[in-house]
């Protein structure tokens, strides 16, 4: 049991180190290639070495009082991205997957919200409230909580830790591990890619998988790899911020999750045609 | 669809009669009394000038927007002042927010430099600030707001200081001020770049570009062409952050459709004072059919050099002499990322036009732009086979040629005992370049000055321009004798790197945005060398306030006096300066969004 429980966490650690390694690799290649030409790079110069101890508010000719000049590096920005707001015809349900953030370049408050609305009621939803901090040039670490709500099940609360960013070859990755009550653990990974057919017509393959540390009978989730979703969406960007799309989403369930579904008389895998909107502001 | 295209055309070309809408209010009439028209901006001269800053409705694209204006015009009035004069310029703020005016390239006491928070407090709403300074120099300069994004929303104008003795005889004398207008709120535009840094790039590499390349060069070569870019998460089409997707490009405040018109008589010598007053746009300027003789750079005399085209970035100015013989010529200024152009006409009569060229197709950045001198060497080996690499090879040989020549001249000029005779070639990355704020560092920078830059290399060879077409490079610019008056070798050397993270849209020196930085401290009247290494893939026009930036070659040969030096991707340049004026000064990239994102330092002279 313990071994299974630890597995998702091990996976996360492996995944994180893989990203870091790949990032490092990209940079290493870069410098290794140049090594032969230039052996005269010296690292570690002190960026304050030329200041003579002065600061932006202290030293000769500094304006009196608190610092007045603040540029955008000290300005908080915000954004909301509805990556998927779509109607699934066969399920007759509406799915949303959105992310919002508020903060600076390197530190941000992040909200991720995903959910499924059928017959006018929220079937299930998952909301992450996270503090994001820049890990390197392309990735942020995210720490916080996740709240899962089920109409016909038991709500769950989790501590969340994850990594989100842009991997080499332009893959958008979002990976997180969760620790819940009663020794529950979970792991999710999402990857997206944007293939530009033209400047406005964009094909977006997407993959998402979920793992759980132990069975959750109330919510019909089994331990181990629970489900995998693969999607392909074709959107047309009327402008960069507003794009309707059509697509197809294939999901499959595994292990106990599949068994629970079978015994409830539901399909274990499913192919949906979707139509939706992607927008951000 | 038809409606869409019509709207789009109007947006890019602008309204023919686009510009400032307001009927001149009474308070303004007093301020602009006695003004005469030249181009589209009124001219003010004398020793006392009154300027009034206010919001004014404008319409460049079919949509009315509020601009921030100086005396109600865009561009602001051209100030024609006289060298040696003590001038008094009263600036009254009728905006609901603080404002300021910076006199770009002018040597003056730091309290008069107009940077809020560094030189002074700024000008509060309703307040009048009195600038008083003595004009110690002559030439073509400009002035603009240094507060928030007011420069981008209309606050820029030409500042011409007539010399006591004019050397350059001209029959016609025109200011050609290039700028860029957006209907968007600049802060909104910046915030979009923070979310998606290629939001204004409509030349991104697509799947069909890839299949085209596969059919042209084979699958392997097409993959290799992209491999490094994709692995490093860098876009080869990232030539500018903003484009005609939001900008309407202006010449003297006039849209391309409006077609600014300068008149001449056959046989005239026409002086064109080009000022890049754009917020974020580099322009490549040519006048098909005319040779352009560059006589001044940044207001300072250079040995005349005749070219067919030149590139300049925000903040830079070039004075050009032309001798037109035909009836009409197009002044064509395409933006560096090739999304559009500003355009005007020189003609013998009003209303004539000449053919307007198509903008060139945008070119991919090369490995040279990513990694400098080694771009065409060991690493780019495979890629050398491909189209863009042939020219990198060429640049490389041009570079060696240039260096050899510089070397011999250097031998003649100074002894080699002084370790500071040449700028250091040891690359010193700051420790703060190894964090989230920096997405790449260059270890083999190019140091040659004779690269015209991406999109302007080998134009004749590629059939894009007539044979023998010459593009100005920094290597062509030499101050005339007497301009570079401090011949002391540098007593010390500072090195700073220009850094950024495109994905996060963060820009900085040494990986430290302004808020985290400390000032660069210079000693009064010292001779000091500053090395700037560009560790990014964009060209940064670096503007140092309060003192000259005197560009040298990589062999330490002093070349040309500038106030704004464009530093190309993966390039390492150096300049000498002598800070004669005490105080605190700003030093920043003059791409407004790069400056505001943090590529900004304070300099203390004490």
> What is the largest interface, and how many residues per chain?
A-B, 62 and 83 residues
Counting DSSP E segments of at least 2 residues, the number of strands of chain A comes to 14
Q: Specify the CATH homologous superfamily of one domain in chain B.
A: Cupredoxins -  blue copper proteins
> In percent, how helical is the residue content of chain B?
10-25%
Order of helices and strands of chain A: HEEEEEEEEEEEEEHE
Shape of chain B: globular
Helical segment count of chain B: 8
Placed side by side, the strands forming the largest sheet of chain A appear as 2-3-4-5-6-7-8-9-11-12-13-14
Question: Main sheet of chain A?
Answer: 12 strands, antiparallel, barrel
Report the count of strand segments of chain B: 34
Task: Give an account of the 3D structure.
The complex is a heterodimer of chains A (281) and B (606). By secondary structure, chain A is α+β, with helices and mostly antiparallel strands. Chain A has one domain: Porin. Chain A contains two helices and 14 strands, in the order αβββββββββββββαβ. Chain A has helices at 2-35, 255-263, and strands at residues 41-45, 77-88, 93-103, 107-118, 121-134, 139-150, 156-167, 171-180, 185-192, 195-196, 201-212, 224-236, 242-253, 269-280. In chain A, a hairpin with a 2-residue loop joins strand 4 (107-118) and strand 5. Chain B is α+β, with helices and mostly antiparallel strands. In chain B, strands 2-3-6-11-10-8 form a six-stranded mixed β-sheet, with no helix packed on it. A six-stranded mixed β-sheet of chain B has the order 13-12-15-20-17-18. In chain B, strands 25-24-27-32-29-30 form a six-stranded mixed β-sheet. The chains are: A alpha+beta (281), B alpha+beta (606). At the A-B interface, helix 1, strand 1, strand 2 and strand 10 of A face helix 3, strand 23, strand 24, strand 25 and helix 8 of B. Strand 1 (41-45) of chain A pairs parallel with strand 23 of chain B.
């Amino acid at each position: 049991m313990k071994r299974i429980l630890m597995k998702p966490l091990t996976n996360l650690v492996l995944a994180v180190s893989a990203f870091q390694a790949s990032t490092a690799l990209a940079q290493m290649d870069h410098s290794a290639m140049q090594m032969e030409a230039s052996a005269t790079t010296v690292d570690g110069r002190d960026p304050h070495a030329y200041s003579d101890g002065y600061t932006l508010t202290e030293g000769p000719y500094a304006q009196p009082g608190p610092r007045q000049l603040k540029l955008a590096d000290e300005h908080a920005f915000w954004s909301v991205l509805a990556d998927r707001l779509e109607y699934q015809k066969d399920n007759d349900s509406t799915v949303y997957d959105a992310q919002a953030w508020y903060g600076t370049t390197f530190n941000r408050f992040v909200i991720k919200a995903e959910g499924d609305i059928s017959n006018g009621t929220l079937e299930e939803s998952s909301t992450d409230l996270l503090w994001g901090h820049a890990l390197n040039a392309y990735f942020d670490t995210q720490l916080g909580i996740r709240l899962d709500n089920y109409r016909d099940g038991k709500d769950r609360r989790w501590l969340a830790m994850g990594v989100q960013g842009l991997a080499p070859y332009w893959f958008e990755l979002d990976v997180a591990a969760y620790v819940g009550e009663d020794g529950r653990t979970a792991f999710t990974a999402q990857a997206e890619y944007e293939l530009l057919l033209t400047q406005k017509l964009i094909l977006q393959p997407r993959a998402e998988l979920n793992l759980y540390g132990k069975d959750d009978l109330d919510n019909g989730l089994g331990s181990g790899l629970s489900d995998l979703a693969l999607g392909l969406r074709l959107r047309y960007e009327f402008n960069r911020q507003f794009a309707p799309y059509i697509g197809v989403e294939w999901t499959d369930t595994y292990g106990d999750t599949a068994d629970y579904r079978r015994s409830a008389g539901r399909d274990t895998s499913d192919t949906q045609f979707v139509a939706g909107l992607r927008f951000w502001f | 669809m038809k409606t869409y295209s019509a709207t789009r055309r109007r947006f890019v070309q602008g309204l023919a009669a686009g510009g400032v809408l307001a009927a001149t209010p009474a308070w303004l009439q007093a301020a602009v009394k006695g003004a005469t028209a030249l181009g589209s901006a009124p001219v003010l001269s004398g020793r006392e000038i009154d300027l009034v800053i206010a919001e004014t409705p404008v319409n460049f694209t079919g949509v009315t927007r509020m601009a921030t204006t100086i005396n109600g015009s865009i561009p602001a009035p051209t100030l024609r002042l006289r060298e040696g004069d003590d001038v008094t310029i009263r600036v009254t703020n009728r905006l609901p927010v603080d404002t300021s005016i910076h006199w770009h390239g002018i040597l003056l006491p730091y309290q008069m430099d107009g940077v809020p928070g560094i030189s002074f407090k700024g000008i509060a709403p309703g307040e009048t600030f009195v600038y008083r300074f003595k004009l110690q120099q002559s030439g073509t300069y400009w002035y603009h707001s240094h507060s928030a994004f007011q420069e981008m929303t209309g606050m820029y104008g030409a500042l011409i200081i007539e010399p006591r003795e004019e050397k350059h005889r001209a029959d016609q004398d025109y200011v050609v001020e290039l700028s860029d207008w957006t209907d968007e709120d600049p802060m909104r535009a910046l915030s979009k770049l923070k979310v998606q840094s290629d939001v204004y790039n409509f030349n991104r590499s697509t799947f069909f570009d890839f299949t085209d390349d596969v059919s042209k060069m084979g699958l392997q070569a097409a993959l290799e062409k992209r491999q490094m870019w994709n692995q490093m998460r860098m876009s080869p089409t990232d030539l500018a952050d903003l484009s005609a997707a939001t900008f309407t490009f202006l010449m003297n405040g006039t849209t391309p459709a409006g077609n600014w018109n300068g008149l001449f008589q056959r046989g005239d010598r026409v002086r064109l004072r080009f000022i890049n007053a754009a917020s974020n746009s580099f322009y490549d300027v040519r006048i098909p059919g005319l040779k352009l003789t560059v006589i001044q750079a940044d207001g300072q005399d250079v040995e005349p050099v005749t070219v067919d085209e030149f590139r300049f970035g925000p903040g830079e100015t070039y004075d050009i002499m032309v001798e037109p013989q035909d009836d009409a010529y197009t002044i064509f200024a395409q933006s560096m990322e090739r999304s559009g152009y500003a355009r005007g006409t020189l003609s013998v009569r009003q209303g004539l036009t000449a053919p307007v060229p198509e903008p060139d197709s945008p070119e991919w950045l090369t490995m040279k732009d990513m990694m400098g001198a080694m771009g065409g060497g060991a690493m780019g080996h495979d890629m050398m086979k491909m189209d863009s690499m042939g020219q990198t090879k060429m640049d490389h040989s041009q570079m060696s040629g240039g260096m050899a020549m510089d070397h011999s001249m250097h031998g003649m000029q100074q002894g080699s005992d002084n370790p500071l005779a040449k700028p250091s070639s040891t690359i010193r990355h700051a420790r703060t370049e190894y964090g989230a704020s920096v997405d790449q560092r260059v270890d083999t920078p190019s140091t040659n000055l004779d690269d015209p830059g991406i999109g302007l290399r080998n134009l004749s060879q590629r059939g894009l321009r007539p044979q023998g077409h010459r593009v100005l490079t920094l290597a062509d610019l030499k101050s005339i004798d007497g301009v570079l008056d401090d011949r002391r070798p540098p007593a010390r050397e500072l090195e700073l790197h220009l850094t950024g993270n495109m994905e996060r849209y963060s820009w900085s020196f040494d990986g430290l945005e302004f808020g985290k930085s400390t000032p660069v401290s210079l000693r009064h009247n010292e001779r000091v060398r500053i090395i700037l290494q560009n560790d990014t893939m964009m060209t940064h026009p670096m503007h140092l306030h309060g003192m000259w930036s005197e560009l040298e070659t990589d062999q330490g040969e002093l070349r040309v006096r500038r106030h704004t030096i464009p530093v190309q991707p993966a390039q390492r340049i150096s300049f000498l300066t002598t800070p004669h004026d005490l105080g605190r000064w700003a030093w920043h990239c003059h791409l407004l969004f790069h400056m505001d994102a943090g590529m900004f330092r304070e300099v203390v002279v004490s």
